[in-house]
Amino acid sequence: MEAQEGWGEGAGRIPGRSARLVAVPMRVARVLSERVGRAMPDDVVLTAAPRSDRGSGAAGRLRREGRLPAVVYGLGGDPAAVTVATHDLDLILAHGVNTLITLRLDGDDQLTLARQVQRHPVRGDLVHVDFIRVRTDVAITAEVALHLVGEAEGSKSGGVVDQQLFSLHIEAMPQNIPGGIELDISALEIGDHLRVSDLDLPAGVTTDVDPETLVVTVAAPRVAAVEEGEGEEGEGEAPEGGAPAEASADAASDGDGDSSAEE
Prior knowledge:
Blueprint: E1 3-4, E2 22-23, E3 29-31, E4 45-50, H1 56-64, E5 67-74, E6 77-85, H2 86-93, E7 101-105, E8 108-119, E9 126-133, E10 140-149, H3 153-156, E11 160-163, E12 167-172, E13 181-184, E14 192-195, E15 206-207, E16 214-219, H4 222-234, H5 242-262
Parallel strand pairs: 2-14, 4-7, 5-9, 10-13
Antiparallel strand pairs: 1-8, 3-13, 4-6, 5-6, 7-8, 8-9, 10-12, 11-16, 12-15, 14-16
């Protein structure tokens, strides 16, 4: 089974989440101005060739030749089976899955986005990709990665940074989709948090995610939380040997009463 490049939230959280949440008044999110690594040129062109052979055998031969099986569809046009250079597409995707790609097929340029990117689960090699046709005047939806930057003040005193949202579902014109969103967490103390409402989205970009959704918290150290819980459990307990002493005194009193009655 191929692994698909996901846009969903990352799995697993760092233990030790604090129950106390303190709002941070400052807006500490800014949009990435560049893609990861080198900035991509404005016009990214990828040459495609028609594909007639179908089936796993033909697809395997293409991959061994450095070509990737793909499909182009969208905007009411007929789907087209194509191939592209695997290495070239890999370089493009390294700068972001939302990079606009001008797909050049038989002399016809089509503006597209790569979707349903499938990779080999072990080697990570590209296996298949879909290209959807887009227009610069029609908004589309996409998932944008959220990146934490800086070292939280709370982590310097033992706090644990707990990122709970790893990507954001947005709607925007294709050319306005950011490569990612950075969140500066350097001012966060233990117990502080950021919500979706704290994100400063660029003009023309909207999200339907609940603004109260937590993005990241700085939790209290787990060891400290455990020790505090143990201290609360210990309150009200009698000192060692106290309860037996009281019981002995009561027993002695009962015994004296019985003896007087007998006399």
